[in-house]
Amino acid sequence: MTVSARPVQANGTIVVVREKVTSAGANGMASVRSGTVYVDTVSGGIHGGAELLRPEAVPTIQARIMSVPAEIAAPSPQGPPLTDLVLDPAGGLTVSAELPGAPGSQATMRMNAGDAGSALSDYGRQVLEQLNAAPAPRPATAPALRHVNCDLVPCAALTYDDGPDARTTPQLLAILAEKKAHATFFMTGSNAAANPSIAKQVAQAGHAIGNHTFSHPNLTKLSPPAVKTEIERTDAAIASATGSIPTMMRPPYGAADAPVQAAVGKPLMLWAVDSLDWQSKNPAVFVPKVLKEIAPGAMVLMHDVQPTTIAGQQELITALQSQGYQLVSVPQLFEDVPLVPGHVYRSRPARQ
User: Fold this and answer.
1) Which one is catalytic: 40, 47, 84, 161?
2) What's the whole-number mean pLDDT along residues 317-333?
3) pTM higher than 0.70 for the full model?
C-alpha cells in the first residue's frame, strides 16, 4: 500500500489536500483510491470532496464519469463513489474516481463552470467564494512606530485582552489615536474571525497584536497537541484578517505550566499590573489601582471587550502621560531585548 497526500488548491481560508491510496494484492490486482479534503484554516472544519455537491446531482455525475473510458469500465448498477473533487477558482470541477469492475483504472472528468455551478451544494458555493477571495493585504498604511529608548525614559505597555469587539474596540482605537499612544491587543481567534475588519483596523493603526488562543481555555487543562491547535487556529484567524501572524502570545488567566510553555512556540507575555477591570467594572476602582501599581517597564492587563474599561481610558492615559510615561506597544517595550519562545515575561528587564 502506498499513501500520499499533497495540497492542490489554497486561497482565502481554504486549503485543499488530495489523498491517494494505491493497493496491490497478492494476486497482482491493484486498486487506486483518491479523495480530496477541504480544510478551513480559521474554523478548523474538515470536509470531504463529496460535500461540494448536492445529493441529487451525484447520480448524473457518476453516470458521466463511468462513460469516460467506456472500453474499460465494466457495467455496474452503482456508479463509483465520488470522493475526489477539485474545485478551481473559475468554477470548474475536476472529478476523479476508480472505475467499478476495473481495479487500478481511474477516470478523470472535468466539468465546466456552468455545469458545475448547478451541481454545487451550499458548502460548495462557500468554498468557491473563498477560492476567489482577495488575499488579505499586509497593513502597509500603518504609521511608523517612533523609537523610544525605554532604558532612558519611563515606558509602559497598555495591553487589552479578549477582543476585538465590534463596538468597544473602535472606541478604544479612537482614544489611543487622540492621545497618540500605542498599545497591544491580545486577540482570541474566535473574535478575530468574527470581526476581521476590526482586527485589520487595529493593525493599520500601528498597534501590536498577540495570540490569546482561539476559545480562551485554561491551557494547563489541555494536552500539548490541543494547546498547539488553539495557537495555530488563532494565528490563522489573525493572519487572515491582518496579513501577519502574531509573534507573541498571552495564555488566558495567565495559566502556563512547563508543558504549555513548551507547546505554544512563542514568548509568553503576561503582565506586571493587573487592573482587574473585568471584576470591578468601575473606572473609579481600576484606574487608581493601575496608577498605584505602575512602574517603568510594566505591562498592564485590561480588556477591550468591557465597555466600562473603555470608559476609563481617557482618564488613565492622561494620568500616565502626565507622569511622564511613554505608552508603547509590547514590541516597542522590549526593543533590543531577545524574546525566547516558551519564556514568560511580565515587564521589561532593567539594564544591568
Assistant:
1) 161
2) 97
3) no
